[in-house]
Amino acid sequence: MSATSGIHVRPRRHGDLTTLLPILQRAHELHRYPVRAVAVRADWLVPPNELAAWVAESDDAVVGHIALHSTAAPGTDAGADDASAQWRRATGVGADRLAVVSRLVTDGSVPGSGTTLLAHAIDAARDVGRVAVLLVEPSSTALGFYRRRGWRQIGTSAQQWGEYRVDAVLMVAPAR
Q1: Beta carbons of 39 and 23 less than 8 angstroms apart
Q2: Full-model pTM
Q3: What is the pLDDT of residue 35?
Q4: How far is CA 129 from the centre of its chain?
Q5: pLDDT digits (tens, 9 = 90+) for 114-140
Q6: Which residues pair with 32 in a beta bridge?
Q7: CA gap 18, 127 in Å, rounded
Q8: Are the C-beta atoms of 76 and 114 separated by less than 8 Å?
Q9: Distance (Å, rounded) from C-alpha 99 to C-alpha 97?
Q10: Which terminus of the chain has a smaller tally of CB atoms within 10 A, N or C?
Q11: Are 168 and 138 in contact (CB under 8 A)?
Q12: Could you give the CA distance from residue 100 to residue 136 in angstroms, rounded to a whole number?
C-alpha cells in the first residue's frame, strides 16, 4: 500500500465494486468516461485481461480506481492489434511486457487521487518488468492530464467502442 497526502492505494477488493459504480456513473456523466453509458457496470471494471487493480482511499472511503490490463490477444480486434504494434515499436518490448493503464476514475473529492493512482500503476508495472501504456479518447480532458504527467504520445489508432469509432491517442509512460 502506498500513501500520498492522506491518499492510500490498496488492491481492489470485490466489495469495492458497489462503491465504484456510482463513481463510474458520475465520470460518465461529467467526462464521458467511459464513452458508452452501457459500460457503466461491474464487469467493465473487471475485464478478463486485467493484470491488477487498485483503489484510492481517503479517510477510509474509496475515492478512485485504476487497473493494468494485458494487451488484447493478437487477432482479437484490428484496432487492438494496431495499438499493440505501435506500442511495441515505440517501447522496444513485446506485447507480453506491456501493461495497459485503464479504468482510471475518481470521484473528484480528493485532489491528487488520480495522480497518485497513476503513479502507483506505473510503478507496479515497472516492478514486474512491464512498460505502462494507454490509449485515450482524443477530445477528453484526460489527454491533458496524461500529458502534464509526462506521458508521450506515439500515434493514434482507430478503435471501435460499441457504436463509436474513435481515433484513440496512444501514449507511453514517462521514462524514469
Answers
A1: no
A2: 0.93
A3: 87
A4: 18
A5: 999 999 999 999 999 999 999 999 999
A6: none
A7: 29
A8: no
A9: 7
A10: C
A11: yes
A12: 11
Burial class of residue 60, CB neighbours in 10 A (0-12, 13-18, 19+): exposed
Respond yes or no on whether the N-terminal peptide bond of residue 34 is cis (omega within 30° of 0): yes
Please, which pLDDT band fits residue 74 given cuts at 50, 70 and 90?
confident
In the chain, the percentage of residues whose pLDDT exceeds 90 is 82
143 contact partners, CB below 8 Å, separation of at least 6: 136, 137, 169
- Residue in 105, 53, 41, 47 with CA at minimum distance from that of residue 72: 47
**18: Cβ–Cβ under 8 A, 6 or more apart, which residues?**
none
Residue type at position 69: H
Question: Exposed, middle or buried: residue 66 (CB in 10 Å: 0-12, 13-18, 19+)?
Answer: buried
